[in-house]
Amino acid sequence: MAEQEEYDNLAYVQRLNAAVHYSAGQICEELSQELDVTFSRQFIAVLSEATFKQCAVFATDLEHFAQHGKRSVINADDVKLLARRSAPLAKHIRDLSEQQNMENEAEREKRKSKKVKKSSKSAAVD
């Protein structure tokens, strides 16, 4: 049973690695057309491997941030903490978080107004 889980995990990691490699290749292809440069296969392979390893480090860091906060779920604050070393990335994530918070607040207000309308209609009927 443990062998099967290890095999499944390895297959999953290999599929993720292949997806990262494919995406890196696609991005390099787009950039090569825009910038009129070429990227070697070796460069794309090294770039995708570095990206994959950095994502693994990010995942571990996020897990540790959540554990430090005595939580079992990673939240937006953990992601903001992760991005703190890159000012442009931190700003982008803060902006996305603020936008998401505004959308969530608008949705709450919308639901609240629907409840008020329903309760006022039922009170008027009674």
Automatic annotation (TrEMBL):
Region (Disordered) residue spans: 93-126
Ranges in a coiled coil: none
Compositional bias annotation for Basic residues: 111-120
Top-level taxon in the UniProt lineage: Eukaryota
A Pfam family it matches: CENP-S
Record carries keyword Transit peptide: no
A cellular component term, taken from the record's GO annotations: FANCM-MHF complex
UniProt keyword terms in alphabetical order: DNA damage, DNA repair, DNA-binding
GO biological process, any: replication fork processing
Family annotation (InterPro entries): CENP-S/Mhf1, Histone-fold
Gene3D superfamilies tied to this protein: Histone, subunit A
Gene Ontology MF terms in the entry: chromatin binding; DNA binding; protein heterodimerization activity
Key word Repeat present: no
Family statement: Belongs to the TAF9 family. CENP-S/MHF1 subfamily.
The protein, known as: Centromere protein S
Source lineage: Eukaryota, Metazoa, Echinodermata, Eleutherozoa, Asterozoa
Originating gene: LOC110976602
